[in-house]
Amino acid sequence: KERTFIAVKPDGVQRGLVSDIIGRFERRGYKLVGLKLLVPSKALANEHYADLSKKPFFAGLVDYMTNGKAPVIGMVWEGPSVISQGRVMLGATDPKAAGPGTIRGDYCLSIGRNICHGSDSAESAEKEIGLWFGGKGEI
Ligand code: ATP
What we know:
This protein is of the alpha+beta class. It contains seven helices and four strands. It is globular, with a radius of gyration of 14 Å. The protein starts with a strand and ends in a 6-residue tail after the last helix. It has helices spanning 10-14, 18-28, 42-48, 58-66, 82-90, 103-107, 122-133; strands spanning 3-8, 31-38, 72-78, 116-118. It binds adenosine-5'-triphosphate. Adenosine-5'-triphosphate (ATP) binds next to strand 4. Keywords: Kinase, Transferase. This is Nucleoside diphosphate kinase. Belongs to the NDK family. Its cofactor is Mg(2+).
């Protein structure tokens, strides 16, 4: 069964968009199999965004995710093609390019405050579920 990691980032939590985002996945027919609210550690955020460690916005991104002004909702969703369809439902990473009807296309405009995250491949889904939920089999 295919699973993906979806997160509501601090801006999405602060803006009260958690129920909308969960609702979209539920109504689509996907199954919620893991859910937690947490302020991630710097170590977790560094590892989650390890591929971006050389980018100029990396330090700001990690600070934003971890500074505790608002928590993150981490979720695991299960169902057919949930990795690719989850990304379609989130919309383009840069909200300026995200279509209407997508989460980002409906609710935001700034790439630095793009509300949500979704795994981009089977490999990253497995890595991210392990990171945020402590490994396969624990959820
Ligand atoms: P995500 O993993 O969040 O779904 P992605 O994998 O499509 O996004 P990446 O290029 O890996 O995109 O960027 C990860 C996150 O880094 C983005 O969601 C965004 O929060 C942040 N980010 C990317 N580019 C920028 C930028 N130019 N300025 C600020 N933040 C950025």
